[in-house]
Structures are given as structure tokens and as C-alpha cells.
Amino acid sequence: MDVRNWSLDQIMQLPDHVFGRRFLIYCSSRPAAGSAGYDISEIAFPELCIIWELLIDCTISDTKRLVFKIALGDQPIAAAGLIEQLEPLFPGLGEQGPEPREIHYKGNKIVRWNKLRIPVRTAGRRMVVEFTNTDEASASGSVGIVVSSVPREIPDCLL
Fold first, then answer.
1. Out of 95, 143, 154, 159, which residue is the most buried by the measure of CB atoms under 10 Å away?
2. Which class is domain 8-153?
3. Closest Cα partner for 121 from 46, 54, 24?
4. CA distances (Å), 37 to each of 34, 52, 76, 100, in order?
5. pLDDT digits over 4-63, tens only?
6. How do the domains of the chain map onto residue ranges?
7. Where are the alpha helices (DSSP H) in the chain?
8. Helix (H, G, I), strand (E, B), or coil: what is residue 67?
9. 113 Cβ neighbours under 8 A, 6+ residues apart
10. Which residues fall within 8 angstroms of residue 86, CB to CB, at 6 or more apart?
């Protein structure tokens, strides 16, 4: 059955398995001590997609801090401060302040938010991440997002 003309609210009521193949969109960086590193995903998001999981990995000493900013963009960041001009991928996630907000982590952590099921209109853009190493220590960070497209057809037996 064709569901292209269904509203997004109707589609979001469908069971998880009809959303098709899920894939990972990924960024990582090893910012030098006291500086920022930037990455843009190789894979673009579908025009309209469902975010199923967010994974953040941070490797830095327990007393130091790595700061992440996650946004949507078309080009790699060329200079500090330009990420603030981009649309945040997760509005409201992080410390209060201008979007995209800062997400702070200390120590060696892997944080995973699963079962999110968030519909996002990305206009085919890619994930852009700023990794800021605020201290004089070596650090690395990565951000992975599991997404799928929105179904256009579903089996008739679901209705």
C-alpha cells in the first residue's frame, strides 16, 4: 500500500520494522590540546528521516573536558564560530545557550540514547560536529547517529 500521501503523524504510528534499513552517520576528531576539531559526515541524511539512536564517545582524562556541538550543514567548518550559523540537529540538547548547544563530557565515556524515533527534516544535509578540547590534554571524540528513511510503501497486511 502506498503511504506517500499519509501525514507524518500517521506514518509514525506504524511499527518499527516497516521503516527499512537503518544506517550509521558518523563524525570523529582528535582535537589538539586547547583547540577545536571539526568533521562533516561522508553520508548525507535523507530529506526526511527517522533518528533511532545517538551515540557519543569521549576519550579524555577524568579531570578534563571535551565539548561537542552537533549541527546540520553542507560544507566542512573552516573556522571557529561558524558552527553557530548552522541549524542544530538536536535543538535543546546540551547546556543552555545559543544553538547548537554545547554538550560536555569528562573522562572515557560512551553515551548511547536508543529508541529515540525522532522524525527530522534535514533537506539532504550532512552532520557537522565541532569537538573542542578545552584543556591541555590529548582527546578524541566521535558522534554516531543511526537513521532510516521514512517508508513510502507498507505491506497491505499491516492494515
1. 143
2. mainly beta
3. 46
4. 10, 26, 11, 16
5. 899 999 999 999 999 989 999 999 999 988 899 999 999 999 999 999 999 999 988 777
6. 8-153
7. 8-11
8. strand
9. 53, 54, 55
10. 71, 72, 73, 100, 128
State pTM to two decimals. 0.91
Which residue type is seen at 94?
Answer: G
6 CB-near residues (< 8 Å, 6+ apart): none
The pLDDT tens digits for 86-126 are 999 999 999 998 899 999 988 888 999 999 999 999 999 99
Closest CA to 144 of 119, 112, 116: 112
Eight-state DSSP code of residue 17: G
Residue tagged 540514547 (cell numbers) = 113
DSSP 128-157: EEEEEE-SSS--EEEEEEEEEE--SB--GG
